[in-house]
User: Which sequence fits this backbone?
């Protein structure tokens, strides 16, 4: 009775949540205000009791507003088609919350990032080390606090010597570094593999080396409608999904109705992005396995898709299409024809090529049984996307939390139980075919409505959660709208953020030669995962590079 | 008027110039063949591919660069030694002309010299302590051990058959061609492919895995030399295979009896040699384009199987087949 | 042999890569390349500067010379086309040109200089002639005078007016 | 003649009197006394053996018991024994000079007087063993060789592993000696008794084996087993990898370089005069065992991560090469006149490799010793980066590694090449042996890539030792042996001049050698090797000037501003060839079977001696055994006399 405004969704979920605090429905999410000490219990109930999936943690400095810190944990509850955002207010004097990592190991990174960036301490965290900030960053300075200006210059003394720390494991085995630049993926990352013979005994990851300060910049000096353009630059491949996710978060926060046609266009572009991303990955996977002919062949198939995206949006990367309230460019009738033709060809060639590739012995033998991730581990580390689906977790945001036009289209979610690299390859392959079919359906059923709804008002301090299924998995954005057409807090969480910790599990017991394909198999996007502030200088000291300096750097060319 | 025959005799007596030609021309040809191979691979991948001379351009570019690292002396010297030895190896087998430094047991010396470049570069690479270069070097020598076993058994097969370890005697013409000889030549053909560091066996360098592996630490002119040494090694291996199947003396003698004028037989043989080299390059690179990389243990298992085949060949040769 | 299928593919598709630097690559008509400011149309209103998410566009008033500079630095441009959306007169458009490399970063800057109007009261340049002309076209003749007054002076004037009204 | 006598006297006197004299000395005195005198004695033995080889004559010496007018001890320095004396004295010279520096690390820790006694006697006894010409002399010195070397193996009393290894070594080889003794006793009973010379024995043996093959072969087999245990032929090899590493490194050099060669002398001596059929059979037996030995020994060496243990396993492997070639030289003449020349090549190869192995293996042990001297560690998983501090040791270790690997133009190459030439083109299983040997040569190479790079290359993984080059005497010995490695490789005729007299002495027709193409080819190779090395040197100096002129800066590894623990990036020794070992595990399974046979044997021998050792101290045990032996000998002598 007290929840009569709850329109649909799980009674059970609402009952559970209302035991801990007041529940509010925001778009496709429930916002529940809980006490900090209840967090582990709530997390346990949601993840293990109800069968939900932990997504991420967000910290926010609300001191200018109500004098507290806010800590959000986001959970996806697929069977209710709802996200759950738990909000805990922490006192400004000593922001402290019990850690949920002991309950959900997958929360490890999320909490550590909150600790680094906002300065909320987590009690009982099993690994209370820095994640994002370098080791020699001064204590007590947290970049995402509101009293830290975005263009503040911070000269840091000393050298980050965390890796110098030598433990027994390193003494016993050979340490093989992969990185700071991955030989095949060409992205900044650093894996430390402890190798016995050529077998990996243990692996460690150090990332967040190229933080770009996107969140801070967006919160500080961009307007609500400019953020989509920086959001899509979080990733070089799945940019559209980020801008879409952001727009959905804002739309849900501000209760903006998006026109039907815009939803369809978004769907089409999202799926085109998935097709080219998966084809790219399949090519790269073959390159990592040394089979360059297959690599070139997949990219040959991918090229028409890129050209199609270029025709539809004016940019090979579908950049610049999304704004809050809709999309900016329409799909013309003649494009529909052309797109259908290209998609047909892509499907045919992809099927033929994959059949050929799967007959190549050495390629298959190097994927089969390699990089095994069990269903239980996948669940505990909260992996998402094809990595999860290849380990038997049947989750897909498109189906579980229908957004854009997915609710009206017919598609299948491929799931496999093998949990190895080959399964991930096959899941992606099947997804390409599904995506082709989704785009075809969407193109054929484009509704005739306006493209964009710009008739909305920016109400400050509304919370919205946006989620999309990026090619690599669930992409979650949390937005708190701000005063003056701005964003108060925006936290994008890319899928690789949840998937990278899984590689450490997969690497154990693998051959060193298989490490690159295992790392590549989650289709990691290190630049998605890193998005903050520290840029490294050759002198060996790290410093905070202000936005202005970046501007000047740009001029220097 | 000067008679041609005595001149020729003099030249044959002083065969050193011949050997020089035999060494220099294939060495110059090696990067060119690589250019062809790159082109062929590109075409199979539906790419346009670089110009044929690209490998030469690359090498020249590398030679003009200074070294980046000042590593230990053995590391710095290894490329020079490797390159010298790979050139020396060429002098032991007939290439363009039918002349070589020939002495008893030269087959063994040939095998040893063929191995020296990778051994010395492995030592140099591990010496630097670079993890990926060390792993690459260990892979290189692990593979080499297995190759050596197969190679030794096949050479033993041929040597048993001809009762000689003189390379000249092992090469054709073969009086009766035994099945064991054919098997051994087939195995050597496989080895010339695999030992050339071609794709399913291009494990020590493995760019996506080890970022260049064994040659990772080298740069500039030294890298150029290492790469050149590998190219020369490839052409040496191809030459070995061609020598095993091309009946030079027979061809020359036939042509000498038919054509009266000077040297035409030699010209034909040389032309055949070069065209066989090109054909072999095209075939090898086409095969290479169609394979992925094996893991070291998988590659060694394949080689273990070929050890068994080579063993069968030796046993057959011992029984007189 | 499955492998030979790849050779068959070559025979079927041929060479698919382009001789790009030697041959031009066509771009679709919807392509968004380098933005071009039409200096004959630009009013200097600054709508594009506000819209630009990447701060590629900027406005600078040279008060001494009385010139307003509208600058576009392509090094920062993300080719989103928000400036073209925002421009009231269609002075900025995204061309189909994409070969943007330059030897010096200053080659990547487009500048449009617009003469500014001096305030009739304080004499300080405050906006461009074109903008004033455009605004005047919309207004009734008796309101037009105010367009030549800079915002500060106008604020003072309004304050005086309202105080009169109160009195 | 006077010169010979003088040299013999110098050798014997300088090896006995200082040894005895230094018993009461504890440290420095014993060190300098014994090593100086041993060096001079070795040098004189070297000259003596060279003289004998040059003249090609034999020298006989008798020790008479005046009352009975019996020639109790008979010695004869034949060209063959002179060759072995040469090998022993070459290594002993280096080892003694090296020892003067090396044993300083025992000052104040161990009692050097006993070391001095055993060290001097050990060298002398080895020389006397290969010179002994009757049974009693052979037995006495054979046993003394075991006793003295056993003491040296377990010299470091503080180390339990050393004491245990010495004990195991003693037990195993003692049991081997028992087989030997039994056969010798049988022979002695059958012939003139213990004073029977080898000439008599061999004559008798020939007769016996033709008339009564069963008994003859049984006696011969007993004798051979005794020798093989001492030579560490698989499956009797498992004492060696324990014993050799535990000795002080200069003694390890002697053990691996010389002592395991002594049985080979007796193999040559006994097997060569056999009737052709039995020669052929025994040749095959020996060649097969040699091949098994070289394969198993070297493949096991591949997985070692202890520097001296790795070298010890390689000693097994290299003895396999020697024995395999020896077997081939016995087999080949039987195949026809065409192969007689090949047989001589095989024989030459065998002795050549023996000489080479003595040189490079002792050098390798010395370099390992130098590393121990400076760092105190033998662990290839931990050591590293010593090349910067110990350039001489590193350079000599590289030369020795390349030599044992058989990389041209070093000495190992020539002898291995002769082995392949003599075996690979023969239409018999020998060809497979040759091919396997060629493969194992590759394994040896990779193994020494590991040995060299782990010790001297990269950065040390765990032990970061600030260290310096070893003292001068040690450097000198290493350089001396390294020079020999190069010289014997580039100028193979040097070695041939010492080997050919032994062939003539054994009645091989060197006529074949002169006319056969092989010796020409050896000469031809000599020329080519010089050409090769000339090219090497030219190119390397040229490139060195270029390379060193363009000296680039070295950058440290960098991780986006973080420091990296780069020394942990070095591969530990165990990681080098793990995958190869896994894939070729069948060899190891087979090797394990052989090893378990050996283990069973050694366990048995240990059990036998365990009871003895429970009640007796090692020294007492030695005396006890000498007494027992002497009594046995006297008893038997009396029996005969009576």
Assistant:
């Amino acid at each position: 009775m007290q929840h009569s405004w709850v329109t649909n969704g799980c009674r059970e979920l609402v009952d559970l949540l209302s035991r801990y605090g007041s529940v509010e429905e925001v778009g496709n999410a429930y916002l529940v205000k809980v006490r900090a000490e209840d967090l582990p219990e709530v997390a346990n109930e949601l993840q293990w009791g109800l069968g939900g999936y932990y997504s991420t943690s967000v910290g926010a400095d609300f001191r200018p507003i109500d004098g507290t810190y806010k800590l959000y944990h986001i959970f996806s509850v697929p069977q209710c088609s709802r996200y759950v955002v738990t909000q805990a207010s922490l006192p400004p004097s000593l922001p402290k919350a019990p850690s949920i990592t002991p309950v959900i190991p997958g929360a490890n990174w999320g909490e550590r990032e909150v600790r680094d960036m906002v300065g909320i301490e987590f009690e009982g965290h099993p690994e209370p080390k820095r994640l994002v900030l370098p080791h020699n960053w001064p204590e007590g300075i947290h970049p995402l606090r509101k009293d830290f200006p975005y263009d503040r210059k911070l000269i840091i003394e000393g050298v980050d010597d965390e890796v110098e720390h030598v433990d027994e494991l390193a003494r016993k085995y050979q340490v093989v570094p992969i990185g700071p630049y991955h030989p095949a993926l060409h992205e900044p990352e650093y894996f430390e593999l402890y190798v016995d013979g050529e077998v990996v005994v243990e692996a460690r990851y150090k990332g967040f080396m190229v933080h770009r300060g996107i969140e801070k910049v967006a919160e500080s000096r961009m307007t609500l409608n400019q953020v989509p353009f920086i959001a899509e630059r979080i990733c070089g491949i799945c940019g559209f999904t980020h801008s879409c996710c952001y727009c959905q978060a804002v739309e849900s926060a501000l209760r903006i109705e998006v026109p039907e046609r815009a939803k369809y266009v978004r769907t089409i572009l999202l799926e085109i992005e998935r097709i080219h991303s998966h084809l790219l990955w399949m090519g790269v996977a073959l390159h990592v396995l040394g089979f360059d002919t297959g690599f070139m062949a997949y990219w040959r198939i991918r090229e028409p898709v890129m050209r199609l995206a270029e025709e539809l949006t004016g940019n090979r990367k579908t950049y610049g299409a999304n704004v809050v309230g809709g999309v900016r460019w329409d799909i013309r009738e003649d494009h529909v024809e052309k797109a259908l033709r290209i998609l047909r060809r892509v499907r045919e060639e992809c099927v033929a090529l994959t059949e050929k590739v799967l007959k190549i012995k050495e390629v298959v033998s190097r994927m089969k049984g390699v990089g095994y991730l069990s269903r239980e581990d996948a669940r505990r580390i909260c992996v998402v996307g094809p990595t999860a689906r290849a380990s038997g977790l049947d989750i897909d945001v498109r189906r579980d939390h229908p957004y854009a036009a997915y609710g009206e289209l017919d598609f299948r979610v491929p799931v496999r139980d093998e949990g190895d690299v080959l399964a991930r390859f096959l899941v992606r392959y099947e997804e390409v075919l599904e995506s082709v079919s989704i785009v075809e359906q969407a193109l054929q059923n484009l509704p005739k409505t306006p493209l964009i709804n710009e008739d909305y008002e920016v109400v400050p301090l509304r919370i919205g959660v946006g989620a999309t299924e990026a090619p690599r998995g669930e992409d979650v954005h949390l937005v708190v709208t701000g005063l003056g057409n701005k964003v108060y807090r925006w936290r994008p969480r890319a899928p690789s953020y949840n998937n990278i910790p899984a590689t450490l599990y997969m690497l154990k017991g693998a051959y060193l030669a298989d490490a690159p394909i295992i790392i590549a198999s989650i289709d990691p996007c290190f630049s998605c995962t890193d998005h903050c502030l520290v840029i490294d200088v050759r002198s060996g000291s790290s410093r905070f590079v202000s936005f202005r300096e970046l501007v000047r750097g740009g001029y220097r060319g | 008027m000067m008679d041609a025959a005595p001149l020729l005799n003099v030249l044959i007596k002083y065969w050193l110039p011949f050997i020089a030609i035999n060494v220099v021309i294939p060495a110059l040809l090696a990067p060119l063949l690589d250019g062809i191979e790159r082109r062929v691979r590109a075409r199979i991948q539906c790419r346009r591919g670089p110009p044929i001379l690209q490998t030469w351009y690359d090498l020249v570019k590398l030679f003009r660069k200074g070294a980046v690292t000042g590593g230990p002396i053995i590391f710095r010297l290894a490329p020079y030694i490797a390159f010298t030895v790979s050139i020396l190896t060429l002098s032991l087998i007939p290439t363009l002309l039918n002349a070589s430094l020939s002495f008893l047991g030269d087959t063994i010396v040939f095998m040893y010299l063929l191995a020296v470049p990778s051994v010395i570069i492995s030592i140099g690479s591990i010496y630097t302590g670079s993890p990926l270069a060390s792993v690459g070097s260990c892979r290189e020598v692990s593979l080499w051990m297995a190759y050596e076993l197969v190679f030794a058994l096949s050479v033993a097969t041929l040597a048993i058959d001809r009762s000689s370890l003189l390379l000249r005697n092992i090469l054709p013409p073969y009086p009766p061609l035994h099945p064991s000889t054919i098997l051994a030549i087939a195995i050597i053909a496989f080895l010339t492919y695999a030992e050339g560091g071609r794709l399913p066996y291009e494990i020590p360098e493995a760019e996506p895995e080890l970022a260049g592996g064994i040659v990772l630490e080298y740069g500039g002119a030294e890298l150029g030399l290492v790469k050149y040494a590998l190219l020369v090694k490839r052409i040496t291996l191809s030459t070995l295979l061609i020598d095993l199947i091309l009946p030079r003396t027979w061809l020359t003698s036939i042509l000498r009896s038919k054509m009266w004028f000077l040297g035409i037989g030699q010209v034909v043989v040389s032309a055949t040699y070069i065209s066989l080299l090109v054909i072999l390059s095209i075939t090898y690179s086409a095969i290479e384009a169609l394979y992925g990389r094996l893991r070291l243990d998988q590659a060694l298992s394949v080689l273990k199987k070929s050890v068994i085949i080579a063993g069968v060949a030796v046993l057959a040769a011992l029984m007189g087949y | 042999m499955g492998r030979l299928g790849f050779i068959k593919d070559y025979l079927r598709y041929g060479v698919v890569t382009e001789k790009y630097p030697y041959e031009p690559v066509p771009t679709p008509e919807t392509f968004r390349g380098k933005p071009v400011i039409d200096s004959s149309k630009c009013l200097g209103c600054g709508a594009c500067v506000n819209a630009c998410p990447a701060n590629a566009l900027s406005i600078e008033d040279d008060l001494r010379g009385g010139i307003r500079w509208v600058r576009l630095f392509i090094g920062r441009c993300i080719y989103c086309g928000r400036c073209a959306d925002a421009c009231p007169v269609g002075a900025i458009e995204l061309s189909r040109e994409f070969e943007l490399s330059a030897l010096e970063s200053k080659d990547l800057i487009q500048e449009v200089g617009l003469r500014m109007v001096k305030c009739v009261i304080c004499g300080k340049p405050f906006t461009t002639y074109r903008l004033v002309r455009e605004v005047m076209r919309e207004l009734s003749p008796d309101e037009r005078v105010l367009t030549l007054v800079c915002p500060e002076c106008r604020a003072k004037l309004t304050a005086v007016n309202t105080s009169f009204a109160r009195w | 003649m006077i010169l010979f006598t003088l040299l013999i006297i110098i050798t014997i006197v300088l090896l006995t009197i200082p040894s005895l004299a230094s018993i009461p000395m504890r440290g420095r005195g014993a060190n300098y006394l014994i090593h100086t005198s041993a060096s001079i004695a070795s040098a004189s033995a070297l000259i003596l053996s060279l003289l004998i080889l040059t003249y090609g004559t034999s020298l006989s010496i008798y020790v008479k018991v005046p009352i009975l007018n019996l020639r109790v001890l008979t010695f004869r320095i034949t060209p063959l024994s002179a060759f072995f004396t040469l090998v022993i004295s070459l290594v002993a010279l280096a080892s003694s000079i090296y020892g003067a520096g090396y044993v300083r690390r025992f000052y104040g820790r161990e009692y050097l007087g006993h070391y001095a006694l055993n060290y001097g006697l050990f060298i002398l006894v080895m020389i006397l063993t290969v010179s002994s010409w009757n049974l009693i002399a052979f037995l006495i010195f054979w046993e003394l060789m075991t006793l003295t070397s056993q003491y040296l193996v377990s010299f470091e009393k503080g180390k339990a592993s050393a004491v245990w290894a010495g004990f195991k070594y003693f037990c195993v080889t003692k049991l081997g000696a028992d087989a030997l003794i039994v056969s010798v006793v049988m022979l002695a009973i059958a012939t003139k008794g213990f004073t029977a010379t080898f000439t008599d024995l061999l004559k008798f043996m020939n007769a016996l084996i033709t008339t009564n093959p069963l008994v003859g072969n049984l006696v011969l087999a007993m004798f051979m087993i005794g020798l093989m245990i001492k030579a560490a032929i698989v499956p009797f090899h498992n004492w060696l990898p324990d014993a050799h590493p535990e000795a002080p490194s200069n003694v390890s050099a002697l053990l691996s370089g010389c002592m395991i060669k002594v049985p080979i002398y007796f193999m040559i001596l006994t097997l060569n005069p056999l009737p052709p059929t039995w020669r052929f059979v025994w040749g095959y037996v020996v060649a097969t065992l040699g091949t098994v030995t070289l394969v198993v020994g070297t493949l096991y060496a591949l997985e070692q991560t202890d520097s001296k243990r790795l070298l010890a396993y390689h000693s097994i492997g290299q003895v396999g090469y020697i024995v395999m070639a020896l077997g081939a030289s016995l087999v080949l003449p039987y195949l026809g006149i065409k192969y007689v020349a090949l047989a001589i090549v095989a024989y030459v190869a065998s002795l050549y490799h023996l000489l080479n192995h003595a040189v490079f293996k002792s050098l390798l042990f010395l370099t390992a010793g130098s590393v121990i001297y400076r760092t105190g560690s033998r662990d290839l998983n931990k050591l590293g980066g010593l090349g910067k501090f110990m350039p001489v040791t590193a350079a000599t270790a590289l030369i020795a590694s390349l030599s044992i690997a058989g990389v041209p133009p070093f000495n190992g190459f020539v002898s291995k090449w002769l082995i392949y030439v003599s075996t690979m083109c023969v239409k018999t299983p020998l060809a497979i042996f040759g091919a396997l040997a060629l493969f194992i040569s590759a394994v040896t190479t990779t193994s020494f890539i590991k040995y060299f790079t782990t010790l001297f290359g990269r950065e040390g993984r765990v032990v970061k030792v600030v260290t310096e080059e070893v003292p001068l005497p040690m450097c000198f010995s290493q350089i001396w042996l390294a020079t020999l490695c190069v010289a014997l490789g580039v100028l193979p005729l040097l070695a041939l001049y010492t080997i050919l007299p032994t062939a003539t002495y054994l009645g091989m027709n060197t006529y074949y050698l002169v006319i056969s193409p092989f010796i020409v080819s050896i000469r031809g190779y000599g020329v080519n090797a010089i050409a090769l090395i000339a090219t090497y040197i030219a190119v390397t100096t040229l490139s060195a000037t270029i390379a060193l002129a363009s000296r680039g800066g070295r950058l440290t590894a960098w991780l986006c501003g973080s420091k990296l623990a780069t020394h942990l990036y070095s591969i530990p020794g165990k990681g080098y060839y793990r995958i190869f070992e896994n894939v070729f595990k069948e060899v190891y399974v087979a090797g394990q079977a052989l090893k378990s046979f050996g283990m069973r044997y050694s366990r048995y021998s240990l059990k036998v001696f365990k009871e003895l050792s429970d009640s007796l101290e090692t020294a007492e045990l030695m005396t006890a055994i000498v007494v027992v032996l002497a009594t046995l000998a006297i008893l038997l002598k009396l029996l005969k006399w009576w």
The two ends of chain A are 63 Å apart (CA to CA). Residues 275 and 432 of chain A are 5 Å apart (CA to CA). Confidence is low (pLDDT under 50) at residues 1-7, 532-557 of chain A.
